[in-house]
Amino acid sequence: MKTYDGPASDHFNGLHFFDPDGAPPKSLRQLLRWQFSGGRERAKWPDWAPSPHADTPPERVDGGKVRLSFVGHASWLIQTGGLNILVDPVWSTRVSPASFAGPKRHNAPGIAFDKLPKINVVLVSHGHYDHLDIATLSRLAKNFAPRVITPLGNDMTMRSADSAIKAEAFDWHDRVELGGGIAVTLVPTRHWSARGMFDRNKALWASFVLETPAGKIYVVCDSGYGDGGHFRRVAEKHGPLRLAILPIGAYEPRWFMRDQHMNPEDAVKALADCGAQAALGHHHGTFQLTDEAIDAPAKALVEALDAAKIPQERFVAMKPGQVVEI
């Protein structure tokens, strides 16, 4: 598969992308140590953990409102300004290069695919299988032909699999007009990307700042915390933020996951750093990617908020099918 080929920058050396303020992904040796060390403690998830919620969204949302429906993991439907925007859409049963192996869903998508309204725009944050799902993107292309906004290099992944996917690739700090007064800016995030053994960091990753009539929404699909600098810079350049969508799951063991995934304590610090009025927690409870229990992120978020003396209603762990309107 072709990979990105462009000029060098402060985060691209001509062959690989990197985060100047981040950390490289763990090595194969470290991965094997985690997976096969004798002391590993991996919680057992229930085979099926259905959400009590399910959503049938309206055809569109106009005026000054934003309607956010949580599909599951890092997938959202955001409706505002007459546009229907999907974030990291995954309706597949597994998030893996193989249809018969790899992390499998433990609950159904919060919106049935055939209940989706016409999708205008899709935002895809990076190339990991739990965020860039070719099967879902192909279904969306066939049914709705939406614009797909993604960081550099991921467009090649999509088009090489299905030329019907209307992928547009952008760099960090690029601002893209979506129509109806809505725009999105791709912003740096502390993560990495790969889809195989030989393409590590050959495509870029990003978070999104979505400009809506109800204010700016900061969508972080995957990120480590680091020293919090990425979150503070978003506050400085893009604030004030009405809402932050922050990952709270896939974080154990910490020695392996700290640089790429936040735990709930980190996410609470990220909320304080970015200064958003409120936050919604996602990236938990659907696919078991790491070792913590299925309900551990939501419980730990309650404890972290109490420790930081932040009201529980300011940062809510979402379940598939739940809806928030602002």
Give the helices and strands, then pairings.
Layout: H1 28-36, E1 66-72, E2 75-80, E3 83-87, E4 121-123, H2 134-143, E5 147-151, H3 154-161, E6 166-170, E7 175-179, E8 182-187, E9 207-212, E10 215-219, H4 229-238, E11 241-247, H5 254-257, H6 264-274, E12 278-282, H7 296-307, E13 315-317, E14 323-325
Parallel strand pairs: 3-4, 4-5, 5-6, 10-11, 11-12, 12-13
Antiparallel strand pairs: 1-2, 1-14, 2-3, 7-8, 8-9, 9-10
Helix pairs in contact: 4-6, 6-7
Can you offer a commentary on this structure?
The chain has 326 residues and is of the alpha/beta class. 20% of the residues lie in helices and 22% in strands. Strands 6-5-4-3-2-1-14 form a 7-stranded mixed β-sheet, with helices on one face. A 7-stranded mixed β-sheet has the order 7-8-9-10-11-12-13, covered by helices on one side. Helix 6 packs across helix 7 (296-307). The longest helix is centred in the C-terminal third of the chain and has 12 residues, at 296-307. The mean pLDDT is 96.
Order of helices and strands: HEEEEHEHEEEEEHEHHEHEE
**Rg:** 18 Å
What is the tally of helical segments? 7
Tell me how many strands there are: 14
Q: For the residues shown, what is the average pLDDT?
A: 96
Strand content: 15-25%
How far apart, in Å, are the first and last alpha carbons? 42 Å
The percent of residues in helical segments reads 10-25%
Q: What class would the helix/strand composition place it in?
A: alpha/beta
* Poorly predicted parts: none
Largest sheet: 7 strands, mixed
Largest sheet: spatial strand order: 6-5-4-3-2-1-14
The gross shape turns out to be: globular
